[in-house]
């Protein structure tokens, strides 16, 4: 079955076919790429591999009512063209039961651990978390949150009889129960109410012109970038090499905020213009691929904090923020690469809260590697109208290594000692940016509550904001409003503080938790999470130690 033409839709030549959930499921089982938007059934088979945002984001939406995700990520012009892919409509007399996309049906996880099964079949022990907390579309009633970190529950287990799978299952189940207890019910009536209120909020933001970019703000930004770069050049000429390195690091730190804006098309809202701005900043000025960032960041926004799908938290064995990593997970983003839980993880994760800041200090070097790996992949060149970005990025990144590697490091610095020190200092100065990026997610839930959870609830459950006075916004670069940004990714960052007040009202109306902490408290929360996972690993090691000891004794006797 092929999409009807746009002209057919306009003339109304034929009435649309009505698809049942079973028919959509059958098409997906046959490998068709079917997504639901505003009641329309979109067939994206011939276009998904050319999607400028990458095919993965479409694969995560198969069988889903992706209306909210599509509307907030695309311009009005793009949304109008989507009718060309419609092959019919769903039965809108009842709410759509979203299907779990094939890419999220992990064969590595036992059936009883699949979140959708865990949630739809309520046991008496978790009834308080699963029960409906709204009898009518109103503010969700709050149930008591299950107290204590999971490590306190695990300590009550018998380390001699607890297997790795049982250990991980208990830890994951505890996180799910906490989320179910503190968030609104997953029943359709409640989630439908949240979606309705979220769409009303989206319309309000559009009517209040929050999507309009005020370019005077970027004039101020450019002045700051220019001063930092001038400081870098002046001190370099004066041979204050380490001071020059600090200025260059600060320049990188500040200008990347605008690359983030351009990556979300939040500056001009024009794909070509914003892509060129982003590529100039990220690739030419900073040596990082905007295409790689968009590829991973788009997936991160759709499935935030999911251990198997979100590349932003797939950092094992250096860092682990979820007990799911204990069983070794297969990454859907990295093409099925398995993050094995090995001896290195056993050693490094228990001390990860101490390694967190040193790792963030050198994280930029890993981004260079990921950027080049992305640009060398074959499918990077097949992204439809974004096809031209790959050769442009390669050219701009080569220019970066020419001016930074040859002109600066080789020609301007007189010794290898100074060259090494300059690289280390300039790159380590950017580490607050990496802290800022991870701060809003590392401490939040990594549980998956299934395909029927609304877009707004998932974003707020896995993301937190960082409180700061308005005069410090330039330091955080808008990334302190991560929860607001995840709800409305194309809103220019200079408008996010205004949108924040509207989001708080939305959360009060729907019973959703809006979490916002100060920078210090946020860091404390992240370290607490890393320490909690580390304690779980210590217990897991004790369990496996008993198993090994018993096996040895069994062999002896």
From TrEMBL:
Chain ranges of the Cytochrome b5 heme-binding domain: 16-91
Membrane spanning residue stretches: 225-251, 271-293, 356-373, 394-416
Enzyme category, top tier: oxidoreductase
GO cellular component: membrane
CDD domains named in the record: Delta6-FADS-like (cd03506)
Single biological process term from Gene Ontology: sphingolipid metabolic process
Bilayer topology: Multi-pass membrane protein
EC number: 1.14.19.18
Keyword Aminoacyl-tRNA synthetase listed: no
Manganese keyword on record: no
Keywords: Heme, Iron, Lipid metabolism, Membrane, Metal-binding, Oxidoreductase, Sphingolipid metabolism, Transmembrane, Transmembrane helix
GO molecular function term, any single one: oxidoreductase activity, acting on paired donors, with oxidation of a pair of donors resulting in the reduction of molecular oxygen to two molecules of water
Compartment list: Membrane
Pathway given in the UniProt record: Lipid metabolism; sphingolipid metabolism; Sphingolipid metabolism
Protein name per the record: Delta 8-(E)-sphingolipid desaturase
Originating organism: Terfezia boudieri ATCC MYA-4762
